[in-house]
């Protein structure tokens, strides 16, 4: 493989950096590395690609510069020879790592978590993350700190390897009792941080690229049927607070809106066709979407003069569980959770499995079971990814019965 030295700005009237470069055919990539030596272009021999050694145009630092260039040549040949002997990998990444080490350019930081803090600080300052994303990455940091303590495994970038992933997997599944979907999400967040660390020169070890995110498991979640919603609507609550929580929940079931989006509703965003024109909250790059209001949904909205009575999401979850319990939704349901290849079965009361997100799931399930086209439903719910959308659809017993009867009723 050939290498060469070039000037960064060959036509400059001032000193310019001398760059080492070579080309990796397999990667289709040109490798360029600064020698950190500078020279005036008039002192450079463009034919030999070295400093002038004779004549009037010779740099005062010619000897020192030439020595540095010879060092780069020697180091390059050593690294190349080691790769031929099978003792080292030879690609652009490994050559950079080798040069960084030999020429003492490794970025030194006090700890793995100092880099993690720089990563989160940058993303927050650049306004790339919403509050929910900031919370997720804060949780990952706390998780990694706890992992260090429990497993007695001091985290450094060089130790993010197969052993780390094995221990981290065991820690999440056994110590934290995480299930596959939670673990998969956390691995994805961790890898995002590691890619950032590589890109910004804080890490060189790429073993983490082999960490496999387990495929997310489509687990049974509860959804209300249209009859359930009617029953809930006619149920009289014990007090006004629970009645308000019930109305907000039913409104969600009838519109498919996220609970966090309800706070955006006001009279100005309801058009003449009784549609809510809503700007996407989770992704500001998405266009506005129109959410048609059924008669009952519009009736609830008018009841509160276009300002739904809202609690925090956490308090609403508690309240709606209480409402469903009082309304008689206290029968037992069975569901499973997955850890790797293992499945665990759990039994809970129906109302205990309900949250604000159940309303959005119920809307999609009811619409789909009624034969409404996916594209139409997605235009209302705001989904762009069919894979994510499919996770919301829960096939209930009535849908199964109707499907079988429709096919076999005349047999």
Give a written overview of the molecule:
With 411 residues, this protein is of the alpha+beta class. The chain has three domains: 3-102, no CATH class; 112-210; 226-408, Intergrase catalytic core (hpI Integrase, Chain A), CATH 1.10.443. It is 46% helix and 13% strand. The protein has 14 helices and nine strands. The protein has helices at 62-84, 92-102, 112-125, 131-151, 162-175, 180-199, 226-234, 240-255, 295-303, 313-326, 356-369, 374-381, 386-390, 397-408; strands at residues 3-7, 16-24, 29-39, 44-45, 50-51, 275-278, 289-292, 332-339, 342-349. The strands form four sheets. Strands 1-2-3 form a three-stranded antiparallel β-sheet, covered by helices on one side. Strands 4-5 form a two-stranded antiparallel sheet. Strand 2 (16-24) and strand 3 (29-39) form a beta hairpin. The longest helix is centred in the first third of the chain and has 23 residues, at 62-84. It is elongated and about 100 Å long. The mean pLDDT is 90.
Q: How many domains in all?
A: 3
Q: Please, what is the average pLDDT?
A: 90
Identify the CATH class of the largest domain: Mainly Alpha
Radius of gyration: 31 Å
Beta strand count: 9
The number of helical segments is: 14
Low-confidence stretches: none
CATH superfamily of the largest domain: Intergrase catalytic core
Written as H for each helix and E for each strand, in order along the chain, the element string is: EEEEEHHHHHHHHEEHHEEHHHH
Largest sheet, strands/sense/barrel: 3 strands, antiparallel
User: Could you say what the CATH topology of the largest domain is called?
Assistant: hpI Integrase, Chain A
Helix content: 40-55%
* Approximate strand percentage: 5-15%
């Amino acid at each position: 493989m050939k290498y060469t030295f070039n000037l960064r700005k060959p036509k400059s009237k001032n000193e310019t950096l001398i760059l080492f470069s070579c080309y990796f055919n397999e990667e289709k990539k040109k490798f360029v590395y600064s020698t950190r030596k500078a020279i005036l272009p008039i002192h450079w021999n463009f034919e030999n690609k070295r400093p002038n050694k004779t004549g009037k145009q010779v740099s005062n630092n010619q000897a020192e510069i030439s020595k540095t260039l010879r060092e780069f040549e020697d180091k390059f040949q050593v690294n190349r020879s080691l790769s031929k002997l099978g003792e080292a990998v030879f690609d652009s990444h490994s050559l950079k790592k080798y040069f960084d080490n030999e020429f003492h350019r490794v970025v030194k930081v006090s700890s793995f978590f100092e880099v993690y803090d720089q990563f989160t600080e940058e993303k927050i300052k650049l306004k790339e993350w919403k509050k929910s994303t900031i919370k997720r990455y804060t949780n990952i940091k706390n998780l990694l700190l706890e992992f260090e303590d429990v497993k007695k495994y001091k985290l450094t970038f060089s130790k993010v390897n197969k052993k780390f992933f094995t221990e981290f997997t065991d820690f999440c599944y056994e110590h934290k009792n995480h299930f596959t979907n939670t673990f998969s999400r956390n691995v994805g967040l961790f890898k995002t941080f590691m890619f950032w660390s590589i890109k910004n020169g804080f890490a060189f070890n790429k073993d983490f690229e082999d960490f496999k995110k387990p495929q997310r498991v489509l687990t049974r979640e509860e959804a209300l049927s249209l009859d359930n919603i009617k029953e809930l609507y006619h149920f009289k609550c014990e007090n006004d607070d629970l009645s308000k929580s019930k109305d907000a929940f039913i409104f969600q079931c009838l519109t498919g809106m996220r609970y966090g989006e309800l706070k955006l509703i006001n009279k100005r965003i309801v058009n003449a066709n009784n549609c809510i024109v809503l700007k996407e909250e989770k992704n500001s790059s998405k266009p506005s979407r129109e959410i048609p209001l059924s008669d009952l949904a519009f009736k609830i909205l008018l009841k509160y003069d276009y300002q739904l009575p809202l609690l925090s999401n956490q308090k609403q979850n508690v309240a709606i569980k209480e409402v469903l319990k009082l309304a008689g939704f206290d029968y037992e349901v069975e569901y499973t959770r997955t850890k790797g290849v293992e499945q665990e079965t759990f039994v809970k009361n129906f109302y205990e499995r309900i949250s604000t997100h159940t309303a959005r799931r119920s809307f999609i399930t009811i619409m789909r079971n009624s034969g409404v086209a996916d594209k139409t439903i997605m235009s209302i719910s705001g989904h762009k990814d069919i894979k994510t959308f499919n996770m919301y659809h829960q096939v209930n017993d009535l849908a199964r019965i109707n499907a079988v009867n429709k096919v076999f009723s005349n047999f």
